[in-house]
Amino acid sequence: MLKPILDALIAFLEVVFPFEAGTAEFYILLGCAIGGMLIVARLLSGVFSSSKGIVITAFAVMIPLLLAALGYVLVELYALPEIQADWAEQFLPWATFGIVFVLAGALVSSKLWDFSKVSAVLALVLAGLAGMSLQYAAQVVMGVVDAGGSQVEKRERVLDESMENTN
Fold first, then answer.
1. Are 33 and 131 in contact (CB under 8 A)?
2. 3-state SS class at 104
3. Dihedral in degrees, nearest 10, Cα atoms 29, 30, 36, 41
4. Can you give the residue range of the structural domain that contains 96?
5. Which of 70, 110, 114, 127 could form a disulfide with 37, with the two C-beta atoms 3.0–4.6 Å apart?
6. Is the pLDDT of residue 50 over 80?
7. Cβ–Cβ under 8 Å, residues 123 and 56
8. CA atoms within 13 Å, Cβ hemisphere of 135
């Protein structure tokens, strides 16, 4: 019973982080996104006058994320095969992700941080945006590094060919 859910969860993570799970690039993007979210959430929890530490902040951020990802996967596995509408496959899993994220943030994170529900959801949304921004920046940097590496290989190949032609 758990195997299809875990496989769908890994497929979901591979959609969010466009590399195969288990590769270094996947873990770099995952670390950047989660690290950025935790840092911004911790800073925002201080702004909203919470004296909770980074561990409580980690739970306040990760519980809504995990529940939202689980909601996405469960809708994709169990609800979509039953619904025959064209729009459902494209929108329903992401709508479920958003709704579960907001509800879990309002209920769980607000209790962990001792904020109002609106402040907790606002902190989570801003932290999510920061995490996505860091993920995008890491993707751009990795793309530049890969392009630079291929340019160096191409230049070395051209130099080797010209050296062989002169000999």
1. yes
2. helix
3. 160
4. 2-166
5. 127
6. no
7. no
8. 19
Q: Is the dihedral of CA 78, 79, 84, 88 positive or negative?
A: negative
Contacts of 78 (CB under 8 A, 6+ apart): none
pLDDT tens sequence across 80-103: 888 888 888 889 999 999 999 999
- Report d(CA 14, CA 26) in Å as an integer: 8
- Tokens representing 4? 């299809």
Nearest to 16 by CA among 33, 39, 35, 37: 33
Q: Tens of pLDDT along 124-155?
A: 999 999 999 999 999 999 989 988 888 888 88
Query: Are 8 and 79 within 8 A, CB to CB?
Result: no
Number of domains into which the chain is organized: 1
34 burial via Cβ count (<10 Å: 0-12, 13-18, 19+): middle
Q: How far is CA 23 from CA 140, 141, 161, in A?
A: 17, 16, 33
